[in-house]
Amino acid sequence: MAGTFTVQQNLELLGRYRYTEIQLMELMGSWACTMIDPEIKIGFGRNMFQDSVHADLLGKRIPELKGRSQHFHSIPPSDGYVRLLEKIWNTSDELLRLVALYQVVKPELVTVYRRHLERMELPADEPTGNIIRLIADEEQDHVEWGRKMIDRILGSSNRLEEARTWKESLLKELNDAGGVWGDGRQPGTYSFKKTHPYSKLPVRDSRWNVMQHPEEFKEKDWSFDTTEGKLHLLHDLLNSEFITVERMGLILSDFPEIPWQMKMDMARQAWDEARHAEIVQRRLEELGGHVGMFPTSCFGWEQDVNRPDPLERLALSNMTFESESCKHLRDWIAKAKKTGDTRSLQLVEFLLADEVNHVLYGVHWIDELTKEDPERRKRVLAYPDKVLADQHPVGVYFKETKNA
Ligand SMILES: [Fe+2]
Ligand SMILES: [Fe+2]
């Protein structure tokens, strides 16, 4: 392709960018619960959301250019490109995943966005230009962040050569597949599903001591009016924040067919929870605590992320656990006020503002997607009780607070 882009050429490329942004969001979503490094989980929560915004911006520009056909909203650049993404998705090693994402695919995105900007008909296509410039800058930030994470892993291991060889082989495959533009290739018809195997627990680094028996779970009995109580409650909440980044990521990767706005909400929640993890850990440490100081609970995880209906997951976690969490946060706010802990008060008020939205995501999407399907609605809404009836102490905790 030479000269400036026509409307038609533009559309063909925007569809390829959007396809890639969505694929990367799903890759991070499916990986988050198996990445050991908490800083990487947090970064994935943030990048997942930003990639969903990139896809959303592109998706708004496409119909403006009269790309009314669904075809333009997602164009796999070539079969070779899709198979390369599948190969990357199948990689289980943390370092090799990061190299693939942040040293191969995302830099390629930045390159094609910048090339696109140079070939733009201006000012005719200024609206696309503004979007692409913004996306390219954010993708460049992702690449920078990824480089730091990769350097850190390489700094404590002897894997530089392995990482380099892997990167070179992927770059060659990417080039052979025609890159994000799919140069000279037909759009791909191949697709793959990012299903995850049955999951007992999300992975945690060695500092965490995950409880094995539900009856050990007593953290919710603590009160936010003493430092010791705050340490227990914040420590427990920190793990819950990580869990929610991970479970939102799995909804995005397990269910590519859900409505786009629902994906945007799930990606937004992943980012909120990633920020919460940062906030909560900071407050925990300010109060003299640290990660791993108490045993922690992942009860509810197995019953959530293995459900084949995303709405059952939302009924259990968003409408039940997060709704309970809102009540707890209100109690913490009252106690922080009473005891003059203005720092905790300010942070927890921000947490609560987000959590209320998370409950609403659950309520809204269950209502919206079961309007025409009373059977599904009944099954979805009954799911939390079904789980909690024989789950202790989550069930006990749920019933106590429900009756309170
Ligand atoms: Fe949260
Ligand atoms: Fe939440």
Short description:
69% of the residues lie in helices and 1% in strands. With 404 residues, the chain is an all-alpha fold. The chain is globular and about 70 Å long.
Protein described:
The structure is a single chain. With 404 residues, this protein is an all-alpha fold. It has 2 domains: 7-176, Ribonucleotide Reductase, subunit A; 213-403, Ferritin (Up-down Bundle). It has helices at 7-31, 38-64, 79-89, 94-118, 126-155, 160-176, 227-254, 260-286, 301-305, 310-338, 342-370, 374-389, 394-403; strands spanning 209-210, 295-296. Helix 2 (38-64) crosses helix 7 and helix 8 runs antiparallel to helix 11. Residues 392-404 have low confidence and may be disordered. Bound molecules: fe (ii) ion (FE2) (2 copies). One fe (ii) ion (FE2) is lined by residues 241, 244, 273, 276, 351, 355.
